[in-house]
Amino acid sequence: MSEIQADETVISGGWLQEKGQAVEDESSCRIKALVRDYLIKLGEGDFGWSKLFSDPVDGRFWEHTYPQSHLHGGGPPELRCLSEEEAVARFGAWVLPKGGPASDEVGCLTGRIWRSFGVPGTGARIRIWDEKGRRVSGVSWDCTVDEAGRFTIEHLRPGMYFVQAALGDRREMTGLIPISRDERARVEINIEQATSA
């Protein structure tokens, strides 16, 4: 059984005042629990300010945002149901059709991370953003970089992507890299001269 009713399309959180302080209301607490324990995270947009989830029972898309931008931290949270068309328009790169994309409809990115004096960037972390600043699902500081500093990211839809590498307190982001259908793009990142995070 779904934790979200079929007729629900918007769940808006709020703040209550208790002893002069703002505290989460019941809807805010429910949103937090749904995001933490129930919904499946697919990706992020607006450089992390909006997140896309799916309901594991009925497959509906849900956008998690903080719509009251004039308030501290964006204000209380909100979950809003999106159609597949809306999800693609807002989070495009990683909203895949049911069953995933066909193997000939995606591309692949391989790369190598270097640190000071040409030493491979073993232990580096990788994150990918599309050209609109939407983070690609499944590549959230968890892409494996081997002992030679190499990594591979598969099943990317054709488009333009930024690649960000982090090693310790150093981060470096590439320019836009084109990913084509059924092709393998390559990138090398030298993190030696990167600025501290």
Explain how this protein is built.
It is built from 2 helices and 16 strands. It has 197 residues and is mostly beta strands. The protein has 2 domains: 10-94, no CATH class; 103-192, Immunoglobulins (Immunoglobulin-like, Sandwich), CATH 2.60.40. The longest helix is centred in the first third of the chain and has 12 residues, at 26-37. The model is unreliable at 96-103 (pLDDT under 50).
CATH-derived topology of the largest domain: Immunoglobulin-like
Which class of the largest domain in CATH terms? Answer: Mainly Beta
Ends distance? 43 Å
- The percent range for strand residues is 35-45%
Q: With helices defined by DSSP (H or I, 4 residues minimum), what is the helix count? A: 2
What general outline do the C-alpha atoms trace? globular
Helix content: 10-25%
- Are there runs of 5+ residues with pLDDT below 50, and where? 96-103
Write the CATH homologous superfamily of the largest domain: Immunoglobulins
Number of domains: 2
CATH arch. level architecture of the largest domain: Sandwich
- The H-and-E topology, N to C, reads as EEEHEEEEHEEEEEEEEE
> Cα-atom Rg, whole angstroms?
19 Å
Averaged pLDDT: 80
Q: What class would the helix/strand composition place it in?
A: mainly beta
Per DSSP E runs of 2 or more residues, the count of β-strands stands at: 16
Largest sheet: 6 strands, antiparallel
